[in-house]
Amino acid sequence: MDTKNLSVPSHAKSRFAGDKHPKRRSSSGVSGVVHDNTRHTTRFTVIGNHLAQHPELSLLAIGLSVHIQSLPAGARVDIKTLTARFPEGADRIAAALRELETHGYLRRPRERTPAGRIVTRTVSCNRPGHHTEGHTDRRAEPEPQPEPESQPGHPTHHSPAPEQRAPAPTRPAHPTAPGPPPKRTPRKPLPAVPQPAYKGPGLLQAATELLAGLRRHDPDLLLSACDTAHLAPGVAAWLERDASPTAVRHALISDLPPEGMRRPAAFLAHRLTAQLPPPAPFGGPATRTEPLRVRHPLRNCDGCDRGFRSPQPGLCRDCAGTGTDPLPAILCGSAANWP
Known about the structure:
The protein is mainly α. Among the domains are: about 50-135, Arc Repressor Mutant, subunit A (Orthogonal Bundle); about 200-275, no CATH class; about 295-339, no CATH class. It has 9 helices and 6 strands; from the N terminus they run ααααββββααααββα. It has helices at about 50, 60-70, 80-85, 90-100, 200-210, 225-240, 245-255, 265-275, 315-320; strands spanning about 105, 110, 120, 125, 300, 305-310. The strands form 3 sheets. It has a two-stranded antiparallel ribbon with strand order 1-4. It has a two-stranded antiparallel sheet with strand order 2-3. Strands 5-6 form a two-stranded antiparallel sheet. The longest helix is centred in the C-terminal third of the chain and has 16 residues, at about 225-240.
């Protein structure tokens, strides 16, 4: 029991404390990233640390915002153009644009062109909450002074000044500068629509049902009762000109703006007026001012046994002895001559 076993190998010696991995230390003796900075004099974009080090934005959203801020004014930054430029798909790029819009780095207001179309303007903000009214191109701002170059082997650690540190904004803040409140412009009335020549209750009811069914094809075309009553005469004018309900519906919902509509009723009123078809030829429904006559059943006269059309049995026009019978389309003749 007390004999020492000399064949047991000695235990491995523990490593000395400290990090001696050759790849974990740079030549300057500082672990981590090493900056090899070069001074830019042309073709550069200034990006704030609040964007480059944003704690909530994804890496794709940060890179997309840097790309948008580097583009000249007037460049196209829609989803289709960005998808053709980068390998990411349309869904990921659309999600990144929504992130930037949520945190105030992007604004997409809708405007109406002189031609009546609704378009979306893209406004890129390099500092959310700083410019809330209007859009100022970043190239119009004075060029910032470049930072001094770092000496080789001695990287410079940049940290934002206390006044530049700002929490992650969620929405563009309203301006706090004193001044009168902005004036609210009154809501413009809806454009006038064509009026039918004969406003029958059945025609207006068909037009109202057609407008109420547009929301099944596009949720943006959900109209209020007031807007439907304003647009119904315009649809009735189309139906009066021998246009089928399917043709009217196709003319209203085809080629809708992909970015949506702010006032769907105004958009439909413009289409009803601008694309109104011509009147129907050959005295069609547009020239008819009274309902069609009802075709009564064929009956035999109680006096002469001749056939005539009437809503109820009785005597024909000859047997009644009057030539002013209001019954339409009386057919008289011998029953023996009929086939």
